[in-house]
């Protein structure tokens, strides 16, 4: 395999909202269904804020949100407990796995970006907030569409999810890639940017296809241009504040940026 870059060796991609499931809708759909089922009101905003975390951590973060905590106490007559998180996750996991089939479409440009990475000698890693059981299904749906990664690491394989860096490090180990500056992390979430920073790799945020806007491809295309610009700008700011070195709109924009990053490494003499 030819190596067209001087320093870059691998890209580690997030899944939902980054390379599949435009708008990162599968987790939100499942969370809203779950909380409706137990009679606790959950806003889209409160459900999305912790996106990118391992799903048990995601549920824990939702329950600690003031509005949700108050609603939980109103419905159940007492605050939530660690056992509440366990019970919610037990119900969430099969619901999420079932919902993945309807939210597994590869995002436009992902196949072409993967091809460009491989043409230039880059290995393709990936990590997620989903469990291994959930990812077995999603990976299967992606492969049917021609999307295949070289490495896939889930939180339950390394003991913790984002913002800890272990999934990125495990990808690096499996792909035999180092040092961290030779790796780029691509993600649509604030948690993903923190994960990348903690691993010492390059962090690229996605502003339009994932959690920050939460829109399907058709909704994105139909949005008023001025409103889209405003929301995209706000998303870019949140991702930059979370640690992104760069923010692009979509994974389709990544190949040009990789050349820029590699040039920066060359110019810095690293």
Tell me what you see in this structure.
There is one protein chain. The protein has 270 residues and is α/β, with parallel strands linked by helices. 53% of the residues lie in helices and 8% in strands. It has helices at 25-37, 44-48, 55-64, 66-76, 82-99, 110-119, 132-144, 155-158, 166-175, 190-199, 217-222, 225-241, 254-268; strands at 10-13, 123-126, 183-187, 202-206, 246-248. The radius of gyration is 18 Å and the shape is globular.
Order of strands, widest sheet: 2-1-3-4-5
- What is the molecular shape? globular
Radius of gyration: 18 Å
Unreliable parts: none
What composes the largest sheet? 5 strands, parallel
The percent range for strand residues is: 5-15%
Helix % is: 40-55%
Task: Give the SSE order as H and E letters.
Answer: EHHHHHHEHHHEHEHHEH
Give average pLDDT, whole number: 95
Which tags fit this structure?
single chain, 270 residues, alpha/beta, five-stranded parallel β-sheet, 13 helices, 5 strands, 8% strand, globular
């Amino acid at each position: 395999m030819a190596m067209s870059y001087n320093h870059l060796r691998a890209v580690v991609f997030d899944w939902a909202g980054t390379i599949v499931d435009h708008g990162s809708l599968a987790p939100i759909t499942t969370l809203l269904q779950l909380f409706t089922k137990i009679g606790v009101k959950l806003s889209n905003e409160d459900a999305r804020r912790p996106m990118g975390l391992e799903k048990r951590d995601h549920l824990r973060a939702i329950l600690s949100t003031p509005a949700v905590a108050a609603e939980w106490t109103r419905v159940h007559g007492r605050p939530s407990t660690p056992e509440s998180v366990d019970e919610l996750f037990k119900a969430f996991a099969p619901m999420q796995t079932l919902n993945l089939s309807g939210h597994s479409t590869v995002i436009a440009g992902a196949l072409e970006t993967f091809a460009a990475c491989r043409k230039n000698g880059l290995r393709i890693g990936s990590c997620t907030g989903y469990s291994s059981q959930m990812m077995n299904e999603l990976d299967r749906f992606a492969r049917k569409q021609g999307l295949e990664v070289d490495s896939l690491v889930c939180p339950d394989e390394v003991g913790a999810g984002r913002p800890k860096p272990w999934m990125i490090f495990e990808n690096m180990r499996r792909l035999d890639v180092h040092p961290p500056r030779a790796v780029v992390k691509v993600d649509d979430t604030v948690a993903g940017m923190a994960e990348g920073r903690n691993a010492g790799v390059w962090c690229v945020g996605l502003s339009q296809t994932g959690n920050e806007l939460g829109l399907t491809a058709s909704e994105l295309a139909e949005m008023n241009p001025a409103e889209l610009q405003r929301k995209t700008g706000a998303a870019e700011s949140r991702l930059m504040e979370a640690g992104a070195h760069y923010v692009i709109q979509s994974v389709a924009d990544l190949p040009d940026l990789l050349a820029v990053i590699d040039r920066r490494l060359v110019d810095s003499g690293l």
